[in-house]
Amino acid sequence: MGKKITMLDIANKAGVSKATVSMVINKTDNKISEETRKKILNIAKELNYIPNSIARSLSTNKSNTIGIILPDITNPFFAEIARAIEDEASENGYNVIFCNTDNVIEKEEKYTKLLISKLIDGVIFISGGDSSKSIKILEDNNIHFILVDRYIESYYKYYGVYCLNEKGVKEGIEYLYSKNNKKIAFVSGPKEIQVSMQRLKGYKETMTKYGIYKNNLVFEGDFTINGGKKATEEILKINEKVDAIFYSNDMMAYGGMKVLVKKGYKIPKDISIMGFDNINISKFIEPELTTVGQPIYSMGKNSCNLLIKLINNENIDKRQIYFETKLIIRDTVSMTP
């Protein structure tokens, strides 16, 4: 294996000093002629030179790299957010390092430390549970961060991008009720995640308003397909016919629909189904899922923009950005006789 190409190699071939090459590579070449600059860049390209980003970040105090910590990359909701962040970061000259925690807090803390060791400029953080320790690590190391989608109890006033979850669930229940669905089961997410509790609150308040709330119609899931399947099996065991099931994310809705179809239920003739998120596949799987939509791409894009403003010490009007949800009416809800 040959030695790594260095700035000195480029300088020797270009007939200039190493300092001149450094200025061109690091874009501090205001006093260097366009001819020399192009010559150096062409030689660097010809030799497949890759700059030492760590060395550069030590000298400039900036790596032009941001980290994304997310809980489950297999969930299309997070994959779509990550894509939006990557698109926006690339547009603004930033690289991205993805870290998938599998909703495991220990992995989350490990990746937080890893990103800091890579000299990242900031982190977009989507919590997998009680993430206060990970956030404290970022704070102690003066790393800018933006919270997305999920609140963290002691950091609810910090910079963040969220959706109006409670309001979205209320709108969903109102729609189900307008279709004469009164026995509505609800599958929440894990109780340690704030967004789960917000959605559950929206369900409880609206059901109570109409005098139809029953504690035995609330089930806890984990925002996964398997979690939806397990919760649905529990719902089918109760000695009560259910008109509709409201899953607090689309992935659990798909898990539940699989169980119901296997049991011989026709959706929505026998039972109505509603999800939450409006992930891309919602409009492709039959029957198409009625769901409460979040503007996923916009959330990712805005979180990246907010982080870059923080990194560059730009003026920020709002510490938190809240997006409205939108009821997406498709084919899984019908009128109950």
Q: Write the CATH fold name of the largest domain.
A: Rossmann fold
Structural class by secondary-structure content: alpha/beta
Number of strand segments:
12
Using the CA coordinates, give the radius of gyration: 25 Å
Q: What is the residue-mean pLDDT, rounded to a whole number?
A: 92
What's the number of structural domains? 3
What is the number of helical segments per DSSP (H or I, 4+ residues)?
Answer: 12
Parts with pLDDT < 50 across at least 5 consecutive residues: none
CATH homologous superfamily annotation of the largest domain: Response regulator
State the CATH architecture of the largest domain.
3-Layer(aba) Sandwich
**Helix content bin:** 40-55%
Sheet with most strands: strand arrangement? 2-1-3-4-5-11
Order of helices and strands: HHHHEHEHEHEEHEHEHEHEEHEE
Shape label = elongated
Main sheet attributes: strand count, strand direction, barrel closure: 6 strands, parallel
Beta-strand share of residues: 15-25%
> Which CATH C-level class of the largest domain is it?
Alpha Beta
Q: Terminal Cα separation, in Å?
A: 75 Å
